[in-house]
Structure formats: C-alpha cells, structure tokens
Amino acid sequence: xxxxxxxxxxxxxxxxxxxxxxxxxxxxxxxxxxxxxxxxxxxxxxxxxxxxxxxxxxxxxxxxxxxxxxxxxxxxxxxxxxxxxxxxxxxxxxxxxxxxxxxxxxxxxxxxxxxxxxxxxxxxxxxxxxxxxxxxxxxxxxxxxxxxxxxxxxxxxxxxxxxxxxxxxxxxxxxxxxxxxxxxxxxxxxxxxxxxxxxxxxxxxxxxxxxxxxxxxxxxxxxxxxxxxxxxxxxxxxxxxxxxxxxxxxxxxxxxxxxxxx
Length: 262
What we know:
- The relative contact order is 0.10.
- The protein is of the alpha/beta class and 262 residues long.
- The protein has eleven helices and eleven strands.
C-alpha cells in the first residue's frame, strides 16, 4: 500500500486500483473546513482521470466520519456584523457546493465508510456516494437546526429523495440523531455491519465491483445522475445511447460470447 499526504486534513492511500481518502482532523471529529474541502476536491479531480484507479473510498480517522461544519470557525464569525456574517455564510456555502458537484460527477465507484459520528456535511457527502457502509456504532446527526441553520451542501435535495419527504422533515426539523439501523431503514446507508467487520465488508464490496466492467459502472452512474432532472423521454434516450455505446465494445463481445459458449 502506497501512502501520501494530499494535505494535513486529508490522507491518501493507494492499494492496487483502489484509493482511500481519509478525513484527518481528529481533534475536531473531522469537522469540515476549507482546507479539507479543497484537498478533497483536488484529490477527486485527479483521481477521476487516473486510469489506474477503479474505485475511491472515503472514511474518517479516530472514530468519526465527518462531524458537520467546524463550529470553531462559525464562532469566529461572531465578531462580524450581521450583514457581513450573512455574506460570509452565503459565500461559504456557495463554494462548498462545488464539492457536491465533484462528488456526484465522479465517474467511478465512490464508497463512504462510516464509523462513529456523522453529521451535517458528513451526511451530505455520504449521500453523494454510490455505496455507504456503516458500522453498528454509527450515529447520524441532523444538527443544523440546533445552531439555527437550515440544510446545506445539497442535503435538502438528497435527503427527501432517499427517505421520503415526511421522514426528511422529521430528521431535519427536529434535529434528530439516529442509529445506523434506523438510517438503513430510511435508505440513507447501503449496509450496516458489526464493529470490527467494516473492513471485511468493504473488501467484499470492492471484490464484487472488480469483476464488473468499469465502463458499465460509469454509464450506470451517468444514468442515475441525469434521472433526477430528465423527463422519461429524455432518460430513455440517454439509456439508448449508453446501451448502444456499451454494445459497441470489445468487452461486450467477450462477455456475450462467454455466456453463449457455456
């Protein structure tokens, strides 16, 4: 396994064709700050075009995934007058929204591994991923309302689509803190595994993905990415294009010939 630092707040490790990006602010439970955000966006940009990478794993150091925004940074804005603070948070959220685009446009399988706490931005980032593996110790906190803030980083978009509108309102408006099992029932995580078995489940998932054409995985991601805004007619037109492109490859010829020859 090769390791390098993309920045003090983000660690990068490569094992074969899988890259793990680890959030590394343990003193703040990996709360998101501009340096971590920018390091993650930069890493994703490079990994998206790296032909040696098939999948990327996101996880946190020291028992937390991402504990939302950095409250110490929030506190520093209290010295500003209210109009300046309004503009500060407006600009902060606008810039951070670019991270959401980087995640949902990432062309390869993206896997979030949650162990311990996840809140706010951490939940948004996880819902941008293709798979979310949570340990049984994971707790998801929808804490925005407790500091008199609404949702950001696309959470008001992703949450109702995953859990349904009424459940999303319950979580957000009551500032709920839920278990991994409840999150599974609400469709917010892919699977829940006992503590100590997360890496085994991750290895199983990566092994399963390794046997599937990366081209097909990329096409499926594009289809899901567009399904939220496309009409049915436009979506079926996209499907026709993606299927046609897939059928015109050597990989398709080999797989079909192998199945027919059994």
